[in-house]
Amino acid sequence: MKLKVCGMKTKDNILNVAKLNPDFMGFIFYKNSPRYFNSVIPELPEHIKKIGVFVDATYDYIKGIVQKHQLHGVQLHGNESPELCKQLQDLNCTVIKVFSIKDSFDFNTLEPYEDVCDFYLFDTKGKHPGGNGFTFDWTVLKNYSSIKPFFLSGGIGLNELNKLLSFLKRPEAVFCHSLDVNSKFETNLGLKNIEKLKEFKSLIQT
């Protein structure tokens, strides 16, 4: 099971998280987020993929950020169109399209995006576009109708571990590619607890 640590903010914390060798690290380029990243990403090991998180941003803004920070991928948390996703794929970017879920979801919504993104990400529907700090009802994913791999996000932390390990054994988790963690591992906004992340990573990858 792959791991993405999102909402990175300060240089020292970024480098310390990188020592844990997550598969992805997420940087939020949405100015209304308390985890908005407005600095320089330090040099990271090549195997860690840098993902930029955007909410209803323009193509030109996203392209500029991708080029400035040499991002490997983009994560789209807003109402981005399939056409924009296709444009971003043409930048040789991995495109992760986010859909928010609470206790139900119409998976037909995914159909226009099937050919224009590389992954889906299912997050908890809440007050904010992401980082709401609580899980959605994962049994909704029993109705997942695609074969595209997805990221599971939304309030995942050590307290959810038993529930998570149980979910990962079920048929609906067969296309779960990566876990995306953020707020449940923070000591402050954007500042991750290294020891908790280390423990979580060891438990999900045993």
Automatic annotation (TrEMBL):
Enzyme class label: isomerase
Claim: Transmembrane helix is one of the keywords in the record: no
Residue stretches making up the N-(5'phosphoribosyl) anthranilate isomerase (PRAI) domain: 4-200
GO molecular function, one term: isomerase activity
Alphabetical list of InterPro entries matching this protein: Aldolase_TIM, PRAI_dom, RibuloseP-bd_barrel, TrpF_fam
EC code(s) of this entry: 5.3.1.24
Pfam families: PRAI
Keyword annotations: Amino-acid biosynthesis, Aromatic amino acid biosynthesis, Isomerase, Tryptophan biosynthesis
UniProt keyword Nucleus present: no
Swiss-Prot/TrEMBL catalytic activity: N-(5-phospho-beta-D-ribosyl)anthranilate = 1-(2-carboxyphenylamino)-1-deoxy-D-ribulose 5-phosphate
Superkingdom to which the source organism belongs: Bacteria
Pathway it works in: Amino-acid biosynthesis; L-tryptophan biosynthesis; L-tryptophan from chorismate: step 3/5
Family recorded in the similarity comment: Belongs to the TrpF family.
PANTHER family for this protein: N-(5'-PHOSPHORIBOSYL)ANTHRANILATE ISOMERASE (PTHR42894)
UniProt cross-references to HAMAP family, sorted A to Z: PRAI
Protein name: N-(5'-phosphoribosyl)anthranilate isomerase
